[in-house]
Every structure is written in C-alpha cells, then in structure tokens.
Please model this.
Amino acid sequence: MAEAIPDDLQRILADRDCSAHADLRDRAAFVYVTGAYPSHLRTPTNRALTVISESDPNASGERPIMDEVASRLRLDDHPMVRRVQAFLAEDYRIQVSRGPNARRPYGKVLVFKDADRRTVQIDGAVRDGWD
Model:
C-alpha cells in the first residue's frame, strides 16, 4: 500500500516536525471522523486527501483514511478526533454541514443529540451550538 503513496506525500508523512505534516494531519482528521472532504481546499490538499483515502467509497459515500496513513498521522490521538469519538460514544451524531451549499471547514465538526448541538474545534475545544 505504501508504494501507492507518492514520494512527496511519503516525505510529509515521515517528517512529524514539518508544518506540512501538521496541516495534512488536521485536514485528514476531519475526513477521518466525518468520512467527507472539507470544502474550499486548494488543489494540492484535495489531491493529498484523495491519495490517502480508501479508493472505494462505502455505501454512504464516505472515503475513510487508509489505516496505514491514519496510524502514521496519529489520527486517533488528534484532539478533535478524540473529542468527537467521545461524543459519538455518548450517542451524538455527526452533521457534516449545515446545509447542501454550506461550507465544511476542516477545523470544525458539528455533533448533535436531540436538540443539543455542539461544535468540536480542531484543538478539541467544544462550543455550544453551530454558529
């Protein structure tokens, strides 16, 4: 599977101290928990997410991150991923966006349970509502 990842992405995945690694990790974290791509990304970032995503979307259209890449990016330890997973364990659900034409910023995951709506931010902080 590693041979399918181009050399430039291999270098980013290998260098945990570079800003490109941190940027890719944050954007991949959104895909990892929501199964959807964030909106309004530049072409190189979309290309990188496409390469590190599973090639076959599942029935709901989600494109999960490859297990190998998720491990290399330490996505299970990402603060947003940990916080969203905690909400999911409490029966919250993810709302990928607020509407069909709404932005899906990679720095926010919308979760809800009944009328309780929360926004989980990239650093794991939680805000009430979806403002």
User: Anything to note?
Assistant: The mean pLDDT is 88. Helices lie at 7-14, 19-34, 43-52, 67-72, 79-89. Strands lie at 93-95, 108-113, 116-121, 126-128.
